[in-house]
């Protein structure tokens, strides 16, 4: 459903109240609504909360950008030279220009270059972390494996 240029996913459920969620990583706006609720009520609900929605989508986009920048180190430039990573790839930049939420997950795709850079970054930090936490925990690992993981 599109409300004032904002793409909103409405899920009808056997519930009593309406709930609004902004889902990471791309800031998808989800509304859980009672099955029998009028569509106009949902539209009014979204319009009343539009400043809150825009603010939280902007914060989510900035957090995603910071996490990408942090994982790439100081050599990161906005979208340049990193396989489409960053806002130049068409991701949501926090500005509502009437378009729907970006579904481009380029900033979340692990290319071979990004995996190697992340691995080098983690491996550079491991000795200090092991030296700090080994005595605290009382054990040190015999082997460390780095894996690209997916979470909800």
Automatic annotation (TrEMBL):
InterPro entries named among the record's database cross-references: YgjP-like_metallopeptidase
Domain YgjP-like metallopeptidase: 16-152
Domain of life: Bacteria
Protein known as: YgjP-like metallopeptidase domain-containing protein
Species of the source: Bifidobacterium breve
